[in-house]
Amino acid sequence: MAEKVKDKSRKKRAISSFSILLIILIVLAIITVVMSLAGVEGVEGATIANVATAPVKGFTDALPVCLFVLILGGFLGIVTETGALDAGIAALVKKLKGNELILIPILMFIFSIGGTTYGMCEETVPFYLLLAATMVAAGFDSVVGAATVLLGAGCGVLGSTVNPFAVGAAVDSLSGTGIAINQGTIILLGIVLWLVTLAISIVFVMRYAKKVKANKGSTIMSLQEQETMKEEFGEAQQEAVDAEANPNEKLLTGRQKGALVVFALTFVIMIIGFIPWGDFDITVFEAGAATEEVVTPITGEEIAASWDDAQVGGALEIPEGVEGTVVSEEQISDGWSSFLTGVPLGGWYFDEASTWFLIMAIVIGVVGGLSESRFVKAFINGAADMMSVVLIIALARSITVLMGETGLDMWILENAAAALAGMSAIIFAPLSFLLYVVLSFLIPSSSGMATVSMPIMGPLANNLGFSPDVMIMIFSAGNGLVNLFTPTSGAIMGGLALAKVEYSTWLKFGAKLFIVLGVVCMVILTGAMLIL
What we know:
- About 70% of the residues lie in helices and about 5% in strands.
- By secondary structure, it is mainly alpha-helical.
- The protein has a two-stranded antiparallel sheet with strand order 1-2.
- Helix 7 runs parallel beside helix 21, helix 8 packs antiparallel against helix 21 and helix 9 (about 165-175) packs across helix 19 (about 445-465).
- The protein is globular.
């Protein structure tokens, strides 16, 4: 009887990501209204129009990543239509038979490198679907796939070393304050945070995966989620089972092998494209860039006007009829790697990535031998499957939009900074970390957070005699920790939707881990603040 009651309760569907985000949006709007009515300075009460337009503005704000996800869906639809993806996963699982667990630490470490070097976050969205299918076929569940991506890249971002969107943006925001920053200290502290938190996360994920592998009933997923997981990834799992039952059977055709090679190349180039190589003084992808001289005629009146605008000496008198020219340089080529997207590798963002995936979808269709009708149908169906993910990303961004319009985020920052003044390092460091944890719910963007907060928190730490280098890492770790579970992150909510994992399930899975990681970060950062 007890078992029936338990099964019945597990069949109850958890509240959807859409509802969670809408509830957060409305609650925060009510908070701003209450604060405004109470006369709190700096906070404007959200209006009905603010709430109603926030999802639309969120969609506009997140349009590049939303378009990227739609095209990605079409791309994956083409790969799936060729049969290469399921067959490739089956071949991998067959090769790793008995050693599937080794995939977890290897992949988490690779993702973490992307996180610590260039803030790999929204770029991980494509991998949730792939890793979920792979882990299910290997005998785990899709939570393991989601955790491998999210915790791997997330721990890297938490311990950013040269990430231009976190520590880079933080250092840049302090450039006008006259505060000297030691990059060596930042990198060393980032490495410690990165590797310690990654090691803890790898052990956590591997223990759970091992338990699920031994007993499918130990999964944290609800029965509804398990059914959805089987519907989505069951074909890849069945391919793996069939491969095990027929060890001598050829799994991949020549066309499928070719499609997989192109598939792998697509993701490698995407990652290379996103890494800001110029920040590391690597210019190989800009080789061949060229400029040309442009000669522009200019009249005497324009020369005199330019002289006045420059405020050089007194007024300049130009005899009537005098003309001149202005010679300037115009970029005519961005280098050899810009021939497809117009932007060299290392300067890509989501528009360039969308272009790349669209091109490679066509290439894979040709390599895989798909007819025009099959190609179009597969691409449209693949894009349609991503529509819920796109809407989740847009809705998550709407919360940030609302907070910016009402000023609640800046009010919290300014008042918290004032409250921290005069505290000792052993109190200042952990409270600053907790402040960034709170703020990161409102501003999940690391570069956005650095821009608005470091001009306040950096000088505050410096004036109190504490290391501004450590303050930068407090920001990075606090923001990075929250981005492992905040519902305001489109990458998390979109990625979990692709992996068919409910947000509430993710919280249950990682709650203890998030607390442990937070405590470890506070201990490391407080120690650094006391020593440096």
